[in-house]
Amino acid sequence: MRNTPSGVGARRAAVGLTGLTALAAAAIIAAPASLAAVDTVSVDQGNLVVGTTYTVSATLSGASIGLLVTFTDNGHDIGAPKMPWPPGHASIGWKPDTAGKHTITASQGPNSQSTVVQVADASLGSGSSSSGSGFGPAGPLGSGSSGTTGN
Asked: Closest Cα partner for 105 from 74, 84, 129, 82?
């Protein structure tokens, strides 16, 4: 049997506990980053125009892929938070109401991912025109054209 002073044994125990505490603290600090991850966010592509509905999708990973996902357009919520379904995927309908650059962000817990899209004004419509000439009860009506244009 080996005799050691009681102070040496207590110091060894304290060093062991300090190391274990530091390791546990490091794991707790690192944990939120690994809990959830938004891997990608995308918008149906094509020529995006004001007033048309598109699907915004996010792919998710990490231990907490079941957490609610929020979507924003230039910092403004797009609808209510969504439950990922199927697991690892969340999507929402988005109808831009202004032309220009839009930053679309998907967030889950402390993690987020964004994409920037350009939205054009909606077409103002197509025009129609007609022309003709004819005779009425009082004689020639003349000729001309009428119509609308998409200005």
From this structure: 74
Alpha helices in 4-91 (DSSP H): 6-35
**Token reading at 26:** 């490091």
Beta-carbon-side half-sphere exposure of residue 38 (alpha carbons within 13 Å): 25
pTM over 0.70: no
Closest CA to 106 of 145, 78, 131, 130: 78
Please count the residues of the chain: 151
Q: What is the tens place of the pLDDT at every residue in 10-30?
A: 555 444 444 444 443 333 334
Residues 6+ apart with CB under 8 A from 144: 131, 132, 133
Does residue 105 carry a pLDDT above 90?
A: yes
First-to-final CA distance of the chain: 101
Interval 131-149: pLDDT, tens: 445 555 565 555 444 444 4
CA 147 – CA 128 distance, rounded (Å) = 5
Which runs of E-coded beta strand occur in the chain?
A: 37-43, 54-61, 70-73, 76-77, 89-94, 100-108, 111-119, 128-136, 139-148
